[in-house]
Specification:
The complex is a heterodimer of chains A (about 400) and B (about 625). Chain A has about 400 residues and is α/β, with parallel strands linked by helices. Chain A is built from 16 helices and 14 strands. Chain A is about 40% helix and about 20% strand. Chain A starts with 8 loop residues before the first helix and ends with a helix. In chain B, the strands form seven sheets. Chain B has an eight-stranded antiparallel β-sheet. The chains are: A alpha/beta (about 400), B alpha+beta (about 625). Chain B: Its main location: membrane.
Chain lengths: ~400, ~625
Amino acid sequence: MPADGELPAEAVADVGARGFGVYVHVPFCASRCGYCDFNTYTAGEGVDPAGYADTVLTELALAGRVLGGSVPRVDTVFFGGGTPTLLPPGELGRILEGIDRTWGLAADAEVTTEANPESVTPASLAQLRRAGFTRISLGMQSTAAHVLRVLDRRHSPGRAAAAAAEARDAGFEHVNLDLIYGTPGETSADFSGSLTAALDAGVDHVSAYALIVEDGTRLAARMRRGELPYPDDDVAADRYLAADYALSGAGLDWYEVSNWAASEAGRCRHNLVYWTGGDWWGLGPGAHSHVGGVRWWNVKHPGTYAGRLAEGRSPGHGRELLTAQERQVEDVMLRLRLVDGLPLSTLDDAGREAAGRALADGLLDPERFDRGRAVLTLRGRLLADAVIRDLLP
Amino acid sequence: MPPTPNAGATAPERIRNFCIIAHIDHGKSTLADRMLQLTEVVDARQMRAQYLDRMDIERERGITIKSQAVRMPWRVREGGRVGEDSVLNMIDTPGHVDFTYEVSRSLAACEGAVLLVDAAQGIEAQTLANLYLALENDLTIIPVLNKIDLPAAQPDKYAEELAHLIGCQPEDCLRVSGKTGEGVSHLLDEIVRQIPAPVGDAQAPARAMIFDSVYDVYRGVVTYVRVIDGRIEARDRIKMMSTGAVHELLEIGVISPEPIKGQGLGVGEVGYLMTGVKDVRQSRVGDTVTINTRPATEALGGYKDPKPMVYSGLYPIDGSDYPDLRDALDKLKLNDAALSYEPETSAALGFGFRCGFLGLLHLEIIRERLEREFDLDLISTSPNVVYRVNLEDGGEVTVTNPSEYPSGKVAQVFEPIVRATVLTPNDYVGAVMELCQGRRGTLQGMDYLSADRVELRYTLPLAEIIFDFFDQLKSRTKGYASLDYEPSGEQQADLVKVDILLHGEPVDAFSAIVHKDKAYNYGVAIAAKLRSLIPRQQFEVPIQAAIGNRVIARETIRAIRKDVLAKCYGGDITRKRKLLEKQKEGKKRMKMVGRVEVPQEAFIAALSTSDGGADQRGTGKK
């Protein structure tokens, strides 16, 4: 990773041809949840949100220099974390203004922030809306109190739906609720309750993720000690089917394995940039970026990150220049999870043969297959990784 | 130190050829070490523990695999014939049941044997078997109780037992401690006094018996012989009487305990020959050596071709190691006339070799040497014996691998049986009988060796012994029982081949030939084991055990329902791709049985737990 963050000319040449997004990582949380392995820090860890926006703006200036005038416009911005709403709305707004100044926000740009239900109020939501945010993504996870407790979530069972309603009242057209299923102790009734509550909140987007126990988390330690049972894949499969049934029944259709939206406009365009080979710059510690086949990632610790920028150096920690083969692997891996799937023509002979077997096994949609695309069926979505492995060279 | 009579020029009446018969941990090697020191052929500085056990594995397991012969000068120190100079040739014998033939050849090279018994444990089955072998060879037996320094020693009790066995008086049993050296000098004196000197015709054409044959990387094959008649000179060309092959003699000499080159070997002498041949198969144990210019007409009796009794498939865990495995077997073969192998392919395990062994320990030793000396990771299939199958059309098939078992049209099947001897404290007689009956054994006789020790004699199918019998025997007798067996022909038996089918496809590595009454248990056990080891697939996978077309046991691996990473990974596509690439790599290492992906680890786990070969690991000293 060069100290000035310079990119190969050929990577920059075509930037934004398949969309350009900006990700802003806000690595602060009020407390650390037991299952979380994201790059985030609490007040007790000596990391201070004050001044963070200015540090990010320094990286933005560097990004502006590296990409020069080649960015056509910014299609999407996504503030993720951590808990972005731990920063005052004015600070988030200042970063957004900086992005607009640097490259120019498209007129219809999607600007999302993640938020914890307990970290927003009608007033803060109104401020965010005024600052230019168009979409909000709330970590609901569950409406069962005992499930929220196992996940260490601080909000009360009804708070997420209330926050979603407040967001809509504040003028947010697009609101997402995140759900987690398969938490130890969660019953199928608990999960139905969460789905119903999410749908009753009137949101136009729901993400439902299986609980993944990551090494090194407190949750993993509790399971190793036998305090909690390990998640069961068959239960996760049942939950997924329940989610797809409830959500599609309410008019939210899947467009990615773990994501459902009420309309095409409700889909998260920022994530689609990730999944369809678009370019984006990730600002903040540990953030990942992709421009024209170059992937890089920043140093993880906020202190190191700020230090690098203060010295006028790139906070980039490592990068890889994707080979044609790796780009092909990523393309299959990401696109097959989408509702439009993958053109069969992008596969090699063995891959097409494997696609034929997946079709015969009921994992690919026959109608779409006839029209030259590999698109997962419901059962295929549950076995997506197996299908991807088979299709890859 | 007495003057060493010249090798090749020692009068027979001065020579005493003897071996030590002992159980594995009864202290043979330690006693041998003391003898080497007392006779001053090894000084204390050179002395390393268990000098004669050369190979690492031998030293670690505390067992002797290959015998050697050491020439020791000795001047009688006390009692009758005091001051008389003699030459003692100590011929070390292999100490395990698989090497009975080698033991018999070593015994045939001797006039006497020291029967060495641990004074705290008494005689063990294997020692008893070798003692009977020595008695059949008319050897003079000197009973010796070892480890008399141990607090738990009961020399009086075991002296009674030995006296009863060989028909002497309890006070005739010598008492020594290999550890402290007590009584060893007296034992050496007694060897001179009691064991007869060799007798042979010095004028007759030379005849020498090969009792060991060892391949050495630097010197080629070193052949150990005992001269019976005549004389072999350093300049002679020698002839192997079994094959008629003639070899130039490069070197002749004695071991004391390092090789000492000499001019020849005469009647009664023990020494080594080197001819430059590279394979012990050209110089086989039991064969008779004569000289080409004046050959003997009649070979010494007792020569047998080594015959594999137990077969197992050896496969490299990493398929690309196959050529290395072949090279390693080629090398081991140079030193092991009993090892046989031929290429074999298994759908489950890939390319490997079907190997024949003298028995289970032999299998274990070969496998361990391959892994240790040649750095190979191996999987061995369940060992099986050799079956003779008569077909309805009058044909006959020899089956060394279940996959060769003919389907249908079988008239009769014959399996090898053994005569087994079990020595056990009488408290466990019931437990041992129950075990042997469960293994289709027939009681042949029972004797009390002493008030509380019993000898049980059974006829058992060899196949039953190579499948965890030894382990069971030890666990049912709290480790007290000992076992010995020897081949005893064959019997007709009601045997069937059980196939294991995975999703309808037979898995060759798990086919087994078992007794009809045990087929069900075998099928159930393997099917259950595989079910727990094979990961779930995208479809339901039945595991069936079948005899021909008849399914006798069935298990099902349920279909996997979820195989998707349903987590928000954000922009970290790299991590996701690496994870996928790793999974893809793992998939490449899967073995395909039809459409079922089976990690090789599953085969290995399934085979290694049912691998009877592992059961005798515990027989050595640890």
